[in-house]
Amino acid sequence: MSTSGLKAIVPVPTASDFLDIVLSKTQRKTPTVIHKNFKISRIRNFYMRKVKFTQDSFDEKLGAILSEFPMLDDLHPFLSSLLNVLYDKNHYKLALGQLRTARHLIDQVAKDYVRLLKFGDSLYRCKQLKKAALGRMATIMRRQKDPLAYLEQVRQHISRLPNIDPNTRTLIICGYPNVGKSSFINKVTRADVDVQPYAFTTKSLFVGHLDYKPPLEEMNTIEMQSITALAHLKSCVLYFMDLSEQCGYSVEAQCKLFHSIKPLFSGKPTMLVINKIDVTRLEDVHPDTRAMVQEIIDQEDVKCIQVSCHSEEGVMDLKNKACDALLAHRVDNKMKGSKVNSIINRIHVSQPKPRDEIVRTPFIPEAVKNKKKYDKSDPERPKLLRDVELEEGGAGVYNLNLKENYLLANPEWKMDTIPEIMDGKNIADFIDPDIAEKLEALEREEERLQAEGFYENSTRTTNAKPKRPPSPSRTRSARKA
């Protein structure tokens, strides 16, 4: 599930609106007129129906809310962590739990008062029991004012989130403020992120774009959970650095931030992006500063690329290399999986041993080399069955001729209708070349049975079983007949 799947949640009414909806529905959908002259059984059923219908309406509305809001444990780890960051999973679970409890209490109230209504002995008593039942249900719902208001705020906020699919491959852009992350997004995507020459210009959430401001040891719980959520994505990490220090942070501080968050992205392809090379390149910095940066570059799974989002130097090259690294990482992970080993064990590539000193190079027939590639716009292209289908009316009209590929001595026979009987004989008999011999054997068997008196016993009934099973040739001939 992606965040787009969370946006289909219907609005959550307030507690007062909830009561108005349910009680007005009960008034409209159930009978409203009763007379004191009715039999007591009819009066009881009248008010029992009111209570049951009200309970069903509450149950339906609360069940719809509980089913549409997702369970955090059933979501993708990224979405679960994201909802925990935004809404606090303890408050979220508590709100849903209170609504479940309210639904259970309403069901219990309805059962108790329906049981009491069965023993109501007058119109007045039945009416008072009905009022008490609906009053207790309404009291239970009024106590759900805060959970309903909280869930409605969650629903509204979810609808404003960007569409994030945690199963797609992602580029995570991170670094200190004002190092050029938003400028890079504007260059390689259709996003329109506000860019200004001062820190903290980006104030809202953009897909795959978050600022990690303080070092890891100084981050609060929310910031830690944000990074943990991103760690669940299939992603390539782009860490932006500004060696000119125009961002307001020293190179040493930027290197420390990288080392602090690197363990959270272990196993992911990582690229160190040195931005603003139109101002300062890696070759221009002090040797001590360069040594700190080189320590990052020398790590096994880190690649370095220098770009300038101002002059666009190296921007598209960075995008292509990041996407290639992400795809290569995906293939490597598949090759490391358990399924690959079970398949590789069944594959054997044979290498023929030379039997003499003659070199035998791979041979490709000329017909294959000269074969023209199919071009739909070429009038001399080979005619495909698809072309024939379009010429003869298209799908639903065209009927495939299965007789066209018959191999017969005379091609003109292809479209002939095959008869079942010809010259007084069954055509199926000609399929078996030994049919004449089998028929003669059957006739000899019948003559022998007749000579032995097998058919002369008048006491034999039609239901009696023969002393021996019929021969296969006899059974087959009977089936053909």
From TrEMBL:
Matching Pfam families: MMR_HSR1, NOG1, NOG1_N, NOGCT
Predominant cellular place of this UniProt entry's protein: nucleus
Keywords: GTP-binding, Nucleotide-binding, Nucleus, Ribosome biogenesis
KW RNA-binding (keyword) present: no
Subcellular location: Nucleus, Nucleolus
Region (Disordered): 447-481
Domain of life: Eukaryota
InterPro entries linked: G_OBG, GTP-bd, NOG1_N, NOG1_Rossman_fold_dom, NOG_C, P-loop_NTPase
Positions of the OBG-type G domain: 169-327
GO molecular function, a single term: GTP binding
BP-aspect Gene Ontology terms: ribosome biogenesis
GO cellular component, one term: nucleolus
Protein name according to UniProt: OBG-type G domain-containing protein
Organism: Agrocybe chaxingu
Lineage: Eukaryota, Fungi, Dikarya, Basidiomycota, Agaricomycotina
